[in-house]
Automatic annotation (TrEMBL):
InterPro entries: Cupin_2 (IPR013096), GPI/OXD (IPR051610), RmlC-like_jellyroll (IPR014710), RmlC_Cupin_sf (IPR011051). It holds the Pfam family Cupin_2. Gene3D superfamilies: Jelly Rolls (2.60.120.10). Residues 1-20 are annotated as: Disordered. SUPFAM superfamilies: RmlC-like cupins. Residues 40-102 form the Cupin type-2 domain. Keywords: Metal-binding. It comes from Natrarchaeobaculum aegyptiacum. It comes from the Archaea. PANTHER family: OXALATE-BINDING PROTEIN, SLL1358 PROTEIN. This is Cupin.
Length: 127
């Protein structure tokens, strides 16, 4: 057996504390150093993963594996159905969530590159 391959079941990992929904970090257990990969499960009314924010250097993509994700942007709300992807370029503000009136849990695989701990900045839209 080599260290060149990994199979990771997110349900075998502990969820992150202090997150608005269930978040499992997949990159480290998979041996990935150049990309951040996380799995999120959000019940109705929960946010995925942070407040309204943007990243200074990181490209971010949400692959919806179950349910329907809603993403607020300065240009309006985007609806991302199961099997689709939402992508945000660096400095593009967004807030992903599962609305209060949703009928189901939304599950998302989030991918960010380069991995950038502390790269997220809060975005405060003009009132």
């Amino acid at each position: 057996m080599t260290d060149n391959y990994a199979v990771v079941d997110p349900d075998d990992l502990e969820p992150e504390d202090d997150r608005p929904c269930d978040m499992r970090r997949l990159s480290e257990p998979a041996g990935l150093e150049h990309v951040a990969v996380n799995r999120f499960r959000a019940e109705p009314g929960q946010q995925v993963p942070l407040a309204y924010h943007y990243h200074e250097t990181q490209e971010e993509a949400f692959v919806v594996t179950a349910g329907t994700l809603h993403v607020e942007t300065p240009e309006g709300e985007r609806t991302v159905h199961e099997g689709s992807i939402f992508a945000a370029q660096p400095t593009a503000p967004h807030r992903a969530y599962n609305p209060d009136d949703a009928d189901e849990t939304v599950e998302v695989i989030a991918i960010g590159a380069p991995p950038a701990e502390g790269d997220a900045a809060v975005y405060e839209p003009d009132e």
